[in-house]
Amino acid sequence: MPVDPADHAAALRQYAAGVVLLTVRDDIDDVGTTVTSLMSVSADPPLVALGLAAEGYPAEVLQAVGAGAVNVLAAGQAIVASRFSSAGRPSARHLLESVPWRRAPVSDAIVLDGALAALDCRVDSVVPAGSHVLVLLSVEGVPVLAEGGEPLVRLRGRWTDAAGAPLRHP
User: How far apart are CA 105 and CA 148, in angstroms?
Assistant: First the structure.
């Protein structure tokens, strides 16, 4: 018997996931999206994978450009995560007007100075997966690496800290 999509979604809301901001720079603008489906794949060579909506603009731009940055967000960056998870959002640079950032050396994508870490990546391969694509990324550098800090987590549809305590809505 097929699984009801609503039950599937409800079950996975019970799973705590770290939150990252994927950024991509193309010839027109900077694009960004909040992602909770990042996973480490290999340390040697360094590879990560993330899931993106197959029909979404971020997936299209990432595949066309072939490079981007993955910013591991800190608990204090819930407002950034919210801005980049909204539909119809403007340019990434506009959403980050008050947030310190710089360009990654390889991808030229935005990396946040206040992130816990940032991975500068090239697209290795893309695998269709239902309504999404799994993007395998080769990590070319780590332009941001904090010494500590609490990660931003998504649990039961809310932004939380690592202990699962809800954060104030941004």
Answer: 23
Q: What is the pLDDT of residues 149-165, one digit of tens each?
A: 999 999 999 998 888 88
DSSP assignments along 52-103, one per residue? EETTSHHHHHHHHH-EEEEEE-BGGGHHHHHHHHSTT---HHHHTTTS-EEE
With beta carbons less than 8 A apart as the criterion, state whether 70 and 118 touch. yes
> Could you please report the per-residue DSSP string of 121-156?
EEEEEEEEETTEEEEEEEEEEEEEE-S--PBPEEET
| Backbone φ, ψ for residue 148 (5° rounding) | -170, -165
7, pLDDT greater than 90: yes
Q: Is 2 exposed, middle or buried (0-12, 13-18, 19+ CB in 10 A)?
A: exposed
Q: Does domain 14-160 have CATH number 2.30.110.10?
A: yes
Q: What is the pLDDT of residues 97-155, one digit of tens each?
A: 899 999 999 999 999 999 999 999 999 999 999 999 999 999 999 999 999 999 999 99
What tokens were used for 167?
């954060």
The model carries a pTM of 0.94
